[in-house]
What we know:
The protein is an alpha+beta fold. It has four helices and 14 strands.
Amino acid sequence: MLFDLSNDKSVNETYKLMAQTIIPRPIAWVVTEDEGVVNIAPFSYFIGLSSDPASVLISVGHKSDGTPKDTLLNIRKHQKCTICMVEEKDLEKMHLSSKSLEHDESEAAFFDIETVYMKEEFPPVIASTPVSYFCEFNQEIDLGGGTTIPLVLSVKEIYVKDEVITDKEKLLISFAPVARIGKSYAFLGEEIVPPVIP
C-alpha cells in the first residue's frame, strides 16, 4: 500500500506510519523552567544529531488548541533546557508527565517527580535519571509549514551517574532505557555484541 503524504488528511496518518516504523525511538525527558515553574515533558522525536559539535534534536509540537507547548515557549524564552534519559523504573511517571498542564503548573509537583539543581544556569535534573544533557538553544528548523518545530540544541555538559559507568577507563555506560514503538513503550533488553570484522 502506498501512502500519499500530500493530501489534507495525511498529518495524522503520517505520524502513525512514522511512529510505528522508525523504531525504537529513545525517549527523553526535556526539563525547562519559567518563572520558577519546572516543566517536564517526554519526547520520543529526539535524536543525537552530532558529536562534533555535540548536538541533539527534539521536535516539539503544539497543544490541541494550536498554541506552542510549554517546552517550546520556555526554550525560546530562556534558550536552555536539560534533557534527561528515561530508565525503566521511571516509565509510569514519564508516561503521566505527558499530560498537558497549564503553563503555571509544574509536572514535577503534579506527578511527584523529584528534581535537583546541578548547574545553576540550567533547569534541574530529574533525580533518578542516569544521564543528563545540559543544552542551549542553537536553532529552529523551518520545515515550510506544519505544527512541528525541530529544535537543534547544543550540548554543553553531560552528567552520567557513577553507578552506570561500567568501565571508567574505556568509558562504557550501561543503563535500562525506555524506547517508544508506535503508541507503546519497549525495554531494549539483551545487548548483542557484534562479531569482530576481520
